[in-house]
Amino acid sequence: MQMEKIIEQCRESVEDFAFSEAKRWKEQHPGGKVIGYFPVYTPVEIIHAAGMLPVAVYGAGNRIEVKQADSRLPSFICSIPRTTVEMAFRGMWDFLDLMLFHPICDVARNLVQIWHRNFSHVPTDLLYLPQNLVSRRSGEYLCDEYARFKRLLEELSGKQISPESLRHSLQLYNRQRALIRRLYEIRRHSPWLISAADTYALLRVGTRIPVEEHLGMLEAVLAELPGRKAKPLDKIRVVFEGSFCEQPPLEFIEVIEDVCDIVEDDFIMASRWITGPVPEEGDPLRALALSYRDLFSYSSIQHDGRRSKSPGLLEKCRRSGAQAVILSPPKFCEPGLDDQVLFAQALQQEGIPYLAMEFEEKMTTFEPVRLQVETFAESLLFYA
């Protein structure tokens, strides 16, 4: 079946830290630029409209050993900046024409200076996304910042980004997000049809190949899912919460799925931040900026006084019929760890069981994870 081939291809691509697809794209598009961006969110529509390829930077997982990066970074930080900088020391990001960072945390905010001092051959920029969304001027500020970023890309490419090209990009990414939402609807109702690990691989590949190619993959998978011959297993249904930035290893997700059905998660927020269609009428740049403010999924890196974050997690539990939650932020992630306290309080008030455990993208031993999850699941099945 075509779906099986696509999933296999996606899994192989996730482990390809040579970024073969991006390099191949660059060879096929002489003069084309590749823009690397740090999670959680980047207005990739602007990059696409400039005729460039956006590539998400998620570090190297557990596939490289960190040696040189620790001489430039503090000891007690999450894995993703360490492996990303280690890859830079090894020349693995030299194919990029720009590395884009965001002030999502203290480490990410300061990476731009570390990068500039050590890898000046790859230009950098810091996209200042507003962290207080209820500020009276947040919308106008973000419009100005997106316009500045647009001018930067125009200077880099030597071409103007027309409203028509940006509107076309909005249409493509609106379609991509709609297909991803449909995929998650199916997983909430029938998680046995496609695993969380396979879904994760499918989404992550979409952050490193042209959106047009990813749309074809999503459409092919969604076309085959309803007819897939798979049976439900007797597992508890859980929501996985905490991987909004750094991503867990595939093996980590698979170990959890050996015991539980992950029916909701926050994997690959770079592709899921905007929860509805960006308006395609009017000024496309303004529409994109205001959608970041008004259509975003809750996140540990943002403050929105209009709503707290805990109701978003509780809504995930309700709409997915989850029996429990796995709270699993990356080790040393201050924004994620801070929110775990609020999430735990909300879950306790609602009487929803939860398991709290950390992960690292560079972890290689998973049996302790299996033991924790099995013990948790058995406590729900036999002692509830």
Annotation keywords:
9% strand, Rossmann fold, 384 residues, 14 helices, 4-stranded parallel sheet, globular, alpha/beta, 49% helix, single chain
What string, H for helix and E for strand, traces the elements in order? HHEHEHEHEHHHHEHEHHEHEH
Figure out the total of helices: 14
Described by the principal axes of the CA atoms, the overall outline is globular
Structural class: alpha/beta
State the CATH architecture of the domain at 21-161: 3-Layer(aba) Sandwich
CA-CA gap between termini: 41 Å
Tell me, what is the CATH class of the domain at 21-161?
A: Alpha Beta
Spatial strand sequence of the major β-sheet: 2-1-3-4
Describe this structure as you would to a colleague:
This protein has 384 residues and is of the alpha/beta class. The protein is 49% helix and 9% strand. The chain has 14 helices and 8 strands. Strands 2-1-3-4 form a 4-stranded parallel sheet. It has a 4-stranded parallel sheet with strand order 6-5-7-8, with helices on both faces. The chain starts with a helix and ends with a helix. The model has no long low-confidence stretch (mean pLDDT 93).
